[in-house]
Amino acid sequence: MIKLIVFLPLLAALVAGLGNRMIGNVVAKAITTGALLTSCALSWPIFLAFVAGNASPSVTPLFTWMQSGGLDIAWSLRVDTLTAVMLVVVTSVSSLVHIYSWGYMDEDPDQPRFFAYLSLFTFAMLMLVTANNLVQMFFGWEGVGLASYLLIGFWFKKPSANAAAIKAFVVNRVGDLGFMLGIFGTFLVFGTVSIPDILAAAPGMAGSAITFLGMRLDTMTILTLLLFVGAMGKSAQLGLHTWLPDAMEGPTPVSALIHAATMVTAGVFMVCRLSPMFEAAPVAQGFVIFIGAATCLFAATVATTQTDIKRVIAYSTCSQLGYMFFAAGVGAYGAAMFHLFTHAFFKALLFLGAGSVIHAMHHEQDMRYYGALRKRIPLTFWAMVAGTLAITGVGIPGLAVGFAGFWSKDAILESAWAAGSLGVEGGHLAFLVGAFAALLTSFYSWRLIFLTFFGKARWTQSEHIAHALHDAHGDHHADSDHDNPPSQEDAGHEPAQHGPAAAGLSDGTGGYHPHESPWSMLVPLIVLSIGAVAAGQVFHHVFVDPEGGLAFWNGSIAFDAHLAHASHEVPTWVMFTPFVVMLTGLWIAYNNYIRDPGAPARFTAMFGPLYTFLLNKWYFDELYNVIFVRPAFWFGRLFWQRGDVGIIDRFGPDGAARAVQGGSVLTGRLQSGFLYTYALVMLLGLAGLATWAMVRF
Amino acid sequence: MIESSLPILSLMLAVPFVAALACLFVGDRAARWIALIATLVDLALGAVLWANYDIGGAQWQFVESIALFGTFKWALGIDGIALMLIMLSVFLMPICIGASWVAIKTRVGLYMACFLLMETLMIGVFAAQDLFLFYILFEAGLIPMYLIIGIWGGTNRIYASYKFFLYTLLGSVLMLIAMLWMANAAGTTDIPTLMQYDFPAQAQTWLWLAFFASFAVKMPMWPVHTWLPDAHVQAPTAGSVILAGVLLKMGGYGFLRFSLPMFPDASAQFMWLIFGLSMVAVVYTSLVALVQSDMKKLIAYSSVAHMAIVTAGLFAFNQQGIEGAIMVMLGHGLVSGALFLCVGVIYDRLHTREIARYGGLAINMPRYALFFMLFTMASVGLPGTSNFVGEFLGIMGIYQASSWMAFVATTGIILGAAYMLYLYRRVVFGELVHDDVRAMPDLSIREWALLAPIAAAVLWMGVYPESFLAPIRGDVTALTARLAATAPAGDAHLAIGKPKLTPKGEALHGAATGEGH
């Protein structure tokens, strides 16, 4: 059965990809979507069996992959609790995204290719989560990287999409450098790459040391740090995060599937899968907490200033991944996986909802040109609200009712505090950072909702809408299109204050009529809304409760029942902090974007440098460009022109030629016949030498 | 030893040789067909050879030995390593003939004869069991290549072929002198015997260096690599395919067959020379590849970077390193050959290798884009393709010898992704801006038939490399056993006990900052 789940998407991808135009759009879409729905239907019973506690881990061997000396790597499919969780996340979101794409990609000329890539991605992701050894995990790891590269660059005519695709692949490769070295080191130390064998032996390695790059280091610390660098790349953690916002160049369903719900969580999955290794390396755990908390804060601050709806959600993803990592760092792997699980639903929902808005607004992605969409696309609005309630963690602490994020994010924050109280360094700090980031989360999430759905319509200023109107009504509105930039948060644009009605369009809509998306897009939104509302309430018992969790995880992660217990007994103020900051964030957003729309402009004027710093994403891209990209090209030219041409050739073959020819113009004199002479002389010389040698012996 | 009733190796040498002679005396059309049929026959013979190769049997199989004159013998025989490289040669040859089918219009008979002669010589090099037979075939193999570059090459072909000649000349002279000394000292020219012979350690140093001079150029290793980009750029497509696919593997084969087993002490002694040159090569040539504007030059420089992983893997002195190196040799042979074919496909249409002249090919050549993507991904070592298996095993072996070398080799994988994807983006993605590019038709059936078999082989090697690892396993085990006594201990081995501070007292501090980026 697991074979079907994993290989059906591959088969569908091959049929749709190779068949392409021969089989046509509908067949390609039907095959891929059908395969995914089948995989999904087969996955849920497995997961529910683990929830009910009547399933046991299994490994299905396929065939040998590599064998060399002591190294023995087989293709095999592992199913345990951790895999089962990922199976339902991956196949559910993927099938919903497939369905959604029927509507979203309806006008695209290249649909079979798109669906083939989506299915290929799903296959690679399933290989990743079912891996029983590190190398197969790496296979899936790189496979999802390939699919991500192909899908980010799906609109390959756009230079920005191509640049983003390459950036995603190369930055991920930097992470892979760590992952690969980690695998090599692990094999050197343990003599195997089989995950269960490594995990069994890991605690025994505490207190030993290996040398890496001339430094003598604690074995488990260096191995887990190297592996974690891989996780940082894939999960876009601070330092290697720069590719994720740019990845929004891909079609929105891709962002929902790959860059929110599944692929980017692979790093968290990896840390949880290898949790016994991390448990044996406290220094590395401290590093994980630090990176997780730092990313959580960094991404949340940037998200508050972005104006592209997808970029806001992308930074939000980055930030939420930070939560998962510091949860894993403090040892609350159950909470990390729980947040991964709930986040998959509500973040996919937010992205698909954003896609629905973009669809309605004729591919306009800038929130400054939205507004007042609540009544126009009500279903999308309510779905987005459900997603926002989930991500901001709305719920009532005392009564234990709440949306998905309420359960998982509170579990993380409480675990962090509890771990800090139990003596984990950085636990309390992670709690404080996480709580502050939760305030920012609430602010930027509601800001998105208010800017998009409330207030006055600001559509006329959008070029995309203008084009749509232009197409629809001839050039009737052409003169009012481009001269009216929006009034809110316009650092990059000149702050011309014409007001929404400047061009004589009293309601700011320009006569444009946004339409609610087709049902193929709305059904996934509804399904995901149910997940965003209920996933936490239904599953928190098995994921994070001390007793339920211990039985559910059944050794597939290093579930710490003691910590889980402690996290339920944190002080009341700790328990209520997330609730308070959530309300605070909501209030600030409401105040600034509904009650007093002029407030953001005043604020940015007051804190100009800070605002610019955040708007430019802490200048990471500029920094990397100066440190890595430009020097690489500079050194490349230097080595080529100065090294190869200027030194090696000049003093090597060319120099030799000059010496022989006495400086005469060699190449001018050479005829093609000259070569025969060379060849002949050489052959004769060879024959002579060989003959001499043979006669001599 | 298995005495085959049929002298299949001699037959494999004879078929293309006879066909080469025939090609000289017939018209263009007939020459093409003769060449194609002869290479296909050799491919079939190769398949028979592989099918009958007894894995786990005698080390040397299909042995033939005929004394000619003096001590000179017509001695052929193969082990698993030679078998794999012969398979690579006979597999690529029909593809090369097919690639030249319409591109070569002048002196077709001579051209086909050159290729067929080269096939004879290549198979001979891998099968030779006599020192001097090896030498003659090894050096003579260059002659058809000179001719191919010099006659059918691009505008600057004379310079390229002359550079090619000059580089290889010096190395081969030194190697010949070393061979003469060895034959004299050991009293035999039989390669299997010499592989077990213990030369005095002092002599090994000099002999190793003499062989190194020849193999390093063939590899090519930095800094004697500058002939390769010029040779590739000027050679016709099929010439590039065979140059990258097989001729570059002769250097690696030489290290495997001569340097390592015959001079184990010297090999251990020079390990850091090899590692040092390989480290420079990986970073240096990858960066140079990044700034190339000529497609063939870019792929040529990437070859140098890949070959550096081969040399480092071979000198890791362990099973994974050596098997990985051999897998890189095979995988790179297929992938770089295929990449040159991909360049050839569009060169035949537009007659320029300038990257900037292309763009947007995914629109009008989707099938081409698919193949090119597959080979690009194979070249960057994506798991599931041939090059991943080689690079992964190779660097895993290297790590056990030196974490520094492994670290640098792995950075080459990042840079590899950068320059290959940058190339792909500029050629295949983007808008169609040039009208002549827009008019280019997608792959013809002939071109499809050239690329599809390589694509299949690349995936086969990536998903089930056991087919290729099994034949070489015994030989590599024998080699590592021979090297075991001298293999240097790696720097990374496990030690019980707390990490000790280095004399400078900053080990842990260094780690913290080193991982922070």
TrEMBL record, chain A:
<feature type="region of interest" description="Disordered">
    <location>
        <begin position="473"/>
        <end position="507"/>
    </location>
</feature>
<keyword id="KW-0812">Transmembrane</keyword>
<feature type="transmembrane region" description="Helical">
    <location>
        <begin position="77"/>
        <end position="102"/>
    </location>
</feature>
<feature type="transmembrane region" description="Helical">
    <location>
        <begin position="213"/>
        <end position="233"/>
    </location>
</feature>
<dbReference type="Pfam" id="PF00662">
    <property type="entry name" value="Proton_antipo_N"/>
</dbReference>
<protein>
    <submittedName>
        <fullName>NADH-quinone oxidoreductase subunit L</fullName>
    </submittedName>
</protein>
<dbReference type="GO" id="GO:0008137">
    <property type="term" value="F:NADH dehydrogenase (ubiquinone) activity"/>
</dbReference>
<feature type="domain" description="NADH-Ubiquinone oxidoreductase (complex I) chain 5 N-terminal">
    <location>
        <begin position="65"/>
        <end position="115"/>
    </location>
</feature>
<dbReference type="InterPro" id="IPR003945">
    <property type="entry name" value="NU5C-like"/>
</dbReference>
<feature type="domain" description="NADH:quinone oxidoreductase/Mrp antiporter transmembrane">
    <location>
        <begin position="131"/>
        <end position="421"/>
    </location>
</feature>
<dbReference type="GO" id="GO:0042773">
    <property type="term" value="P:ATP synthesis coupled electron transport"/>
</dbReference>
<feature type="transmembrane region" description="Helical">
    <location>
        <begin position="138"/>
        <end position="157"/>
    </location>
</feature>
<dbReference type="GO" id="GO:0016020">
    <property type="term" value="C:membrane"/>
</dbReference>
<dbReference type="GO" id="GO:0012505">
    <property type="term" value="C:endomembrane system"/>
</dbReference>
<dbReference type="Pfam" id="PF00361">
    <property type="entry name" value="Proton_antipo_M"/>
</dbReference>
<feature type="transmembrane region" description="Helical">
    <location>
        <begin position="177"/>
        <end position="201"/>
    </location>
</feature>
<feature type="transmembrane region" description="Helical">
    <location>
        <begin position="522"/>
        <end position="543"/>
    </location>
</feature>
<feature type="transmembrane region" description="Helical">
    <location>
        <begin position="427"/>
        <end position="446"/>
    </location>
</feature>
<feature type="transmembrane region" description="Helical">
    <location>
        <begin position="570"/>
        <end position="590"/>
    </location>
</feature>
<keyword id="KW-0472">Membrane</keyword>
<dbReference type="GO" id="GO:0003954">
    <property type="term" value="F:NADH dehydrogenase activity"/>
</dbReference>
<feature type="transmembrane region" description="Helical">
    <location>
        <begin position="675"/>
        <end position="695"/>
    </location>
</feature>
Automatic annotation (TrEMBL), chain B:
<feature type="transmembrane region" description="Helical">
    <location>
        <begin position="240"/>
        <end position="258"/>
    </location>
</feature>
<feature type="transmembrane region" description="Helical">
    <location>
        <begin position="206"/>
        <end position="228"/>
    </location>
</feature>
<feature type="transmembrane region" description="Helical">
    <location>
        <begin position="445"/>
        <end position="463"/>
    </location>
</feature>
<feature type="transmembrane region" description="Helical">
    <location>
        <begin position="33"/>
        <end position="53"/>
    </location>
</feature>
<dbReference type="InterPro" id="IPR010227">
    <property type="entry name" value="NADH_Q_OxRdtase_chainM/4"/>
</dbReference>
<feature type="transmembrane region" description="Helical">
    <location>
        <begin position="324"/>
        <end position="347"/>
    </location>
</feature>
<feature type="transmembrane region" description="Helical">
    <location>
        <begin position="132"/>
        <end position="152"/>
    </location>
</feature>
<feature type="transmembrane region" description="Helical">
    <location>
        <begin position="108"/>
        <end position="126"/>
    </location>
</feature>
<dbReference type="GO" id="GO:0008137">
    <property type="term" value="F:NADH dehydrogenase (ubiquinone) activity"/>
</dbReference>
<feature type="transmembrane region" description="Helical">
    <location>
        <begin position="298"/>
        <end position="318"/>
    </location>
</feature>
<comment type="similarity">
    <text>Belongs to the complex I subunit 4 family.</text>
</comment>
<feature type="domain" description="NADH:quinone oxidoreductase/Mrp antiporter transmembrane">
    <location>
        <begin position="128"/>
        <end position="413"/>
    </location>
</feature>
<feature type="transmembrane region" description="Helical">
    <location>
        <begin position="73"/>
        <end position="96"/>
    </location>
</feature>
<protein>
    <submittedName>
        <fullName>NADH-quinone oxidoreductase subunit M</fullName>
        <ecNumber>1.6.5.11</ecNumber>
    </submittedName>
</protein>
<feature type="transmembrane region" description="Helical">
    <location>
        <begin position="401"/>
        <end position="424"/>
    </location>
</feature>
<keyword id="KW-0812">Transmembrane</keyword>
<dbReference type="Pfam" id="PF00361">
    <property type="entry name" value="Proton_antipo_M"/>
</dbReference>
<dbReference type="InterPro" id="IPR001750">
    <property type="entry name" value="ND/Mrp_TM"/>
</dbReference>
<keyword id="KW-0472">Membrane</keyword>
<keyword id="KW-0560">Oxidoreductase</keyword>
<dbReference type="GO" id="GO:0003954">
    <property type="term" value="F:NADH dehydrogenase activity"/>
</dbReference>
<dbReference type="GO" id="GO:0015990">
    <property type="term" value="P:electron transport coupled proton transport"/>
</dbReference>
